[in-house]
C-alpha cells in the first residue's frame, strides 16, 4: 500500500515522478473500462476543499493525487511527513508525452484557446511523432456543448485525456463525465497547454530548482498577484491544521 502524507486532511501519496509515470503506464496497459482520474493537487484546490464539500468529494474519489506545487511539499516536510518531490501537472504532461512517444499512446487535448490548443497539438506531433493527437477541443465552449465534447472524446478513445480548463473546473468536468468517457487516464494540467504551445514561457531551470516558479510567473504575469495571496494563507492554515487522530 502506498504511504501518504496528509495535507489539510487530504491524503497525498508519497510518489516520485518516475513512480507516477509507471503507475499511469500500468493503468494504460491494463486497458480497464473505468477512467483513472489524476488530480494534481495545488494549494488553491486544497484550500477550496475546506469549504466546498462537493469539490472535496471529487478529490476523495480521484484515483491518484500528486503534489502540484512546492507549497504542498514544503508543508509535508514541516509536518515531518515529507512527500518526496513535486509532481506538477506541467511536468507530468511532458513526462507522459515522452512515454507516449515511446509507446504510441494517443492523447486528446481539451482546453486553452483555439489558437493555443491547435498550436499545442502541432508542437506535440512535431516533437513526439510516435504519440498520436487523437482529438482536440478548445476550452472556451458553452456548457450546452458538454455532451457533444464527451461523445467526441469517447469516439476517439484516447489513452490520455489532457484537461486544461484550470482548477477546479477541470476536476469538476472530469468527474461529471468520468463514467461515460472512454479514455484510460484523465488529468487536469492547468495552463500547461500554453507552455507546450510556447505562448507562455516556463520558468528557467534555475528558478524551478530554487522552487521559485511562482515568483517567475508573478514577475511575468503581474495580474496573478491576487491568486498568489492564497499561498501564505495556505501555508499557515495547512501547517497548523489538526489532522484527525492527532493529539491536542
TrEMBL record:
<keyword id="KW-0961">Cell wall biogenesis/degradation</keyword>
<comment type="function">
    <text>Catalyzes the conversion of GlcNAc-PP-undecaprenol into ManNAc-GlcNAc-PP-undecaprenol, the first committed lipid intermediate in the de novo synthesis of teichoic acid.</text>
</comment>
<comment type="pathway">
    <text>Cell wall biogenesis; teichoic acid biosynthesis.</text>
</comment>
<protein>
    <recommendedName>
        <fullName>N-acetylglucosaminyldiphosphoundecaprenol N-acetyl-beta-D-mannosaminyltransferase</fullName>
        <ecNumber>2.4.1.187</ecNumber>
    </recommendedName>
</protein>
<dbReference type="InterPro" id="IPR004629">
    <property type="entry name" value="WecG_TagA_CpsF"/>
</dbReference>
<keyword id="KW-0808">Transferase</keyword>
<dbReference type="InterPro" id="IPR034714">
    <property type="entry name" value="TagA_TarA"/>
</dbReference>
<keyword id="KW-0777">Teichoic acid biosynthesis</keyword>
<dbReference type="GO" id="GO:0071555">
    <property type="term" value="P:cell wall organization"/>
</dbReference>
<comment type="similarity">
    <text>Belongs to the glycosyltransferase 26 family. TagA/TarA subfamily.</text>
</comment>
<dbReference type="GO" id="GO:0047244">
    <property type="term" value="F:N-acetylglucosaminyldiphosphoundecaprenol N-acetyl-beta-D-mannosaminyltransferase activity"/>
</dbReference>
<dbReference type="GO" id="GO:0019350">
    <property type="term" value="P:teichoic acid biosynthetic process"/>
</dbReference>
<dbReference type="Pfam" id="PF03808">
    <property type="entry name" value="Glyco_tran_WecG"/>
</dbReference>
<keyword id="KW-0328">Glycosyltransferase</keyword>
Amino acid at each position: 500500500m502506498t504511504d501518504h502524507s496528509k495535507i489539510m486532511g487530504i491524503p497525498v501519496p508519497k510518489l516520485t515522478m518516475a513512480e507516477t509515470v509507471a503507475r499511469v503506464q500500468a493503468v494504460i496497459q491494463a486497458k480497464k473500462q473505468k477512467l483513472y482520474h489524476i488530480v494534481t493537487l495545488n494549494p488553491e484546490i486544497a484550500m477550496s476543499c475546506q469549504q466546498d464539500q462537493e469539490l472535496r468529494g471529487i478529490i476523495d474519489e480521484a484515483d491518484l493525487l500528486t503534489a502540484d506545487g512546492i507549497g504542498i511539499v514544503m508543508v509535508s516536510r514541516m509536518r515531518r511527513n515529507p512527500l518526496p518531490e513535486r509532481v506538477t501537472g506541467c511536468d507530468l504532461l511532458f513526462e507522459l508525452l515522452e512515454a507516449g512517444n515511446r509507446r504510441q499512446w494517443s492523447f486528446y487535448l481539451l482546453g486553452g484557446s483555439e489558437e493555443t490548443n491547435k498550436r499545442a497539438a502541432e508542437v506535440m506531433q512535431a516533437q513526439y511523432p510516435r504519440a498520436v493527437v487523437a482529438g482536440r477541443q478548445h476550452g472556451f465552449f458553452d456548457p450546452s456543448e458538454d455532451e457533444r465534447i464527451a461523445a467526441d472524446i469517447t469516439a476517439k478513445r484516447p489513452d490520455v485525456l489532457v484537461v486544461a480548463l484550470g482548477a477546479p473546473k477541470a476536476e469538476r468536468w472530469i468527474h461529471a463525465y468520468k463514467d461515460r468517457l472512454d479514455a484510460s487516464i484523465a488529468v487536469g494540467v492547468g495552463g500547461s497547454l500554453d507552455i507546450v504551445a510556447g505562448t507562455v514561457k516556463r520558468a528557467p531551470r534555475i528558478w524551478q530548482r530554487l522552487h521559485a516558479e511562482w515568483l517567475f510567473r508573478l514577475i511575468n504575469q503581474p495580474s496573478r498577484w491576487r491568486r498568489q495571496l492564497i499561498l501564505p494563507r495556505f501555508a499557515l492554515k495547512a501547517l497548523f491544521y489538526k489532522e484527525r487522530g492527532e493529539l491536542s
